[in-house]
């Protein structure tokens, strides 16, 4: 990925921008059927419009399809729970072992 020339950026942005190559380039796309229609219409619209932009921007993407109402909510909720569990395990791993089990 080409870097933006620093001379073109205002001073206040130079320090906060960092290296653009460090930014994760992955997105999760949620597709569901429009009310009263089938999922094929959403898939077609994704291929015609969204996929072209993601490919042109070199963004990796993952597609999750909801076949019933409320399924996207469940997908997002599960991802949040998994993320919080990983964060909790990472925090516990940093605490010394004898302090983990002490009751204060």
TrEMBL record:
GO process terms (BP): protein transport
Keywords annotated in UniProt: Membrane, Mitochondrion, Mitochondrion inner membrane, Protein transport, Translocation, Transmembrane, Transmembrane helix, Transport
Keyword hit for Membrane: yes
Protein name: Mitochondrial import inner membrane translocase subunit TIM54
Keyword Protein transport included in the entry's annotation: yes
Cellular component aspect of the GO annotation: mitochondrial inner membrane
InterPro entries assigned to the protein according to its UniProt record, in alphabetical order: Mt_import_IM_translocase_Tim54
Family label: Belongs to the TIM54 family.
Major location (coarse): mitochondrion
Lineage: Eukaryota, Fungi, Fungi incertae sedis, Mucoromycota, Mucoromycotina
Annotated compartments: Mitochondrion inner membrane
Bilayer topology term: Single-pass membrane protein
């Amino acid at each position: 990925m080409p870097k933006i020339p620093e001379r073109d950026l205002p001073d206040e942005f130079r320090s906060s921008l960092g290296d653009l190559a460090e930014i994760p380039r992955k997105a999760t796309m949620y597709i569901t059927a429009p009310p009263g229609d089938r999922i094929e219409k959403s898939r077609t619209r994704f291929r015609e419009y969204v996929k072209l932009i993601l490919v042109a921007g070199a963004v990796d993407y993952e597609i999750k399809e909801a076949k019933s109402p409320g399924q996207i909510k469940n997908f997002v909720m599960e991802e949040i729970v998994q993320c919080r569990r990983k964060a909790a395990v990472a925090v516990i791993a940093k605490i010394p072992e004898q302090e983990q089990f002490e009751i204060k």
